[in-house]
Amino acid sequence: MKHPDYYSSGEFARMAHISVRTVRYYDKQNLLKPSYVNASGARFYSDHDFVRLQQIMLLKYLGFSLEDIRELLIEDPDYRFLKNSLGLQRKLIQDKIEQLQMVEKAIADTIEEIQQNANVNWVHMLDLIHLTNMENSLKSQYQNSSNITARIQLHNQYSTNPQGWFPWLYGQCHIQNGMKILEIGCGNAQLWTENRNRIPPKLSVVLSDISEGMIREIRRDERLKGTHFSFEVADCHRLPHDPDTFDLVIANHMLFYCEDIQGVLMEVKRVLKKGGQFVCSTYGPDHMREISELVQEFDDRIVLSADCLYERFGRENGKEILEKCFHDVVWHPYEDSLRIDSPEPLIEYILSCHGNQNRYILDRYTKFRSFLAKKMSYGGLAITKDAGIFASLK
Question: H or E stretch including 180?
Fold first, then answer.
């Protein structure tokens, strides 16, 4: 017998102008479970389910995969999380538009070649094949960019040091007019966008990152337009620059990700001028430790990072590692902490980490948010920061 407040699968499908098979498929994919199943196994759906179905259909139309949609459709949604995901999707669409424009040009050039020479320009054809396959890793590259932004925003919002990390870091670099600078692993280039009003008129800055997606994104940033900046996709293990080129090389929180840290330092030394400065940031074992303790308290299966990156290159061992290539190595601490009074930015930060947290948090998002809100109810959460820079000379 049908419940008066529910729709049968057929009625539900007709309301949404989709097939019953699609409704069943979303059920199997754990995207849209029926609100009521009677004794005979018939499935019934509510108006609340219809809202969820509309969300699924919109996100699917916008290009999200079903796996993406499963993560986005959190009960009692956090719209900050949705906004960032939509921003990521927009970047992917912009890239697809650029890619199609390049494909169109390759086709047009090939057609013109055939018309003029009755021959095929195989170079153009190979370019076309490359273009149609070049974007396979874009999503992961832009997801990395989105994750970096989430981590930076938490610090920007809740740092107790009013100066902020990037203005402080810029000051530690002692940048002077006329310098040639290389930043390796530049990420979203926030060091430069936050300090754009402090950049002297005659400065040459190469922004370098291994991620094509990162470089593509910062190329579009209007704040980085002009003669100061050039952009390159490069592996810092093999820098595409002549010896003795730069007055300053910057590596902000990236050396501990490198496969061969000593090899990267040798490359940095090679491209630095004699007397040039190398500034690299890192952190120590106490950095953000309360966040790991929180997620472990919520679910002891959660590991935010499988690697203790500071053990590879950190506050405690960085000087010894750097002194194999550089001299006058000095540690400068950044005096700061966080005081967080809202769950959402912290959740966004946690979900951006490199561990297994999404597996255990997304399905219990509301519960996790309540857990954090309770922890913050007595004056907010105090988070330790243990970061700084090593400055050294060639």
Answer: strand 180-184
User: What pLDDT is recorded for position 139?
Assistant: 45
**pTM: predicted TM-score of the whole model, two decimal places:** 0.68
Residue 63: how many CB atoms within 10 A of its CB?
12
* Per-residue pLDDT at 129 exceeds 60: no
Can you tell me the distance from the alpha carbon of 201 to that of 180, in angstroms, rounded to the nearest whole number? 12
Residue holding tokens 């209007």? 222
Which has the closest alpha carbon to 222: 192, 242, 249, 252?
A: 192
Q: Helix crossing, 79-117 with 343-351: angle to 10°?
A: 40
**Predicted pLDDT of residue 82:** 63
How sure is the predictor about 196, in pLDDT bands with cuts at 50, 70 and 90? Answer: very high
Mean pLDDT of 372-390: 92
Q: Are 389 and 172 in contact (CB under 8 A)?
A: yes
Q: Does residue 142 register a pLDDT over 60? A: no
Give the Cα-Cα-Cα angle 20, 359, 185 (nearest 5 degrees): 115
Q: How would DSSP label each residue in 119-140?
A: S--HHHHHHHHHHHHTTTTHHH
Contact indicator for 142, 90 with CB cutoff of 8 Å: no
207: which strand partners? 183, 231
User: CA–CA separation, 280 vs 236, rounded Å?
Assistant: 13
Alpha-carbon distance of 274 to 259, in angstroms, equals 26
Q: Under a CB-based contact definition with an 8 Å cutoff, are residues 209 and 187 in contact? A: yes
